[in-house]
Amino acid sequence: MTTDITIIGAGLGGLTLARVLHVHGIPSTVYEAETSPTARMQGGLLDIHDYNGQLALRAAGLIDAFRGLILEGRQAMRVLDRDGTVLLDKADDGTGGRPEVQRGELRRTLLDSLPAGTVRWGHKVSSARALGEGRHEVTFADGSTAVTGLLVGADGAWSRVRPLLSTATPEYADTSVVETYLFHADTRHPAAAKAVGGGSMMVPAQGKEIFAHRESGDTLHAYVGLAKPQEWFDAIDFTDAAAATQRIAQEFDGWAPELTALIIDSDTAPVLRPYYALPTGHRWDRVPGVTLLGDAAHLSVSNGEGANLAMYDGAELGEAIAAHPYDIERALTVYEEAMFPRSAEAAADGMQLNGLLFGDDAPHSLIAAFIEDGETA
Questions:
Q1: Are the beta carbons of 178 and 232 closer than 8 angstroms?
Q2: CB 3.0–4.6 Å: which of 94, 101, 248, 318 could bond 20 by disulfide?
Q3: Contact, 149 vs 3, CB < 8 A?
Q4: Rounded Cα gap, residues 197 and 96, in angstroms
Q5: pTM of the complete model beyond 0.70
Q6: CATH code 3.30.870.10 for 171-277
Q7: Which residues are annotated as a binding site?
Q8: From CA 81, how far away is CA 259, in angstroms rounded?
Q9: pLDDT of 176-196, one tens digit each?
Q10: 5-71+99-170+279-356 adopts what CATH topology?
């Protein structure tokens, strides 16, 4: 190996890259802004797809460990109308290609697979600059620096590495979700638990949606989506949990009580998650010694592919480097030429999905799409 490798961001994509490099005997260093692996919650369930996320885990030598994390039955899926009528009810028969795992457990598996010291915690990047001849300097918030021969931005939507390659910045995607949790749902929230079922539940309508899934430990995790401008959400004081909950619930007036319970009866304060996106088809000219993966490269509206694509990016980049260890520019070219069209297709699919979820004909357009894809009601 002719150069050192620095990865910014210890999310699933950055860690997959580090792991695949390690499998091939190539060292790397991962810098992460969070102070420890447990500094914050790592999200909820992830469905890991057999055509990208699972392929990445195979390349990382972790497919057996992944299978041990799968929550059985969670591929079951229901679509309901706003009055609670079940429009589609698909059981998990064990043959689906998108098994569910807890994001935090998957991240821990990746972390545990790396040599001690690979991840440097508490290193928040403030800037990065080119030094010439493909080398870059990263400056951290505490004033320390790192110089590297290959810099990989795996640092998400607001990447500090992206400006080395592109002037593009994420823009608000006209939709936000509000996250809620119901704990011990079968005993404390039985009607909502029955509505969600054993896996996931979607209730799409024009301009709004409730999506929920059953996590481990009898927990329901809901994402309440609204196609509203940022200013509408800015007018809500989310530091006042009761008032914010009431305001969001007003948008679902008249919906079945077992559905609105996912908002009103939340055991946690509502958390706002605005959707942002880079331009569909975002790409850049080859710049020596630097590249991006995951949301840093192709942030798009939520479509169930984000984590899978990030992991697949990491695996593909790691494999390309292993195939061309003495020609990093060739490795980056191979990686980017495949990544650009792959991510553009996924972003376009995401926009189409959001049209089905929030469009004028929801939920009927979504049901029609499922039937066309072979789902059974």
A1: no
A2: 318
A3: yes
A4: 17
A5: yes
A6: no
A7: 40, 47, 103, 295
A8: 10
A9: 999 999 999 999 999 999 999
A10: FAD/NAD(P)-binding domain (3.50.50)
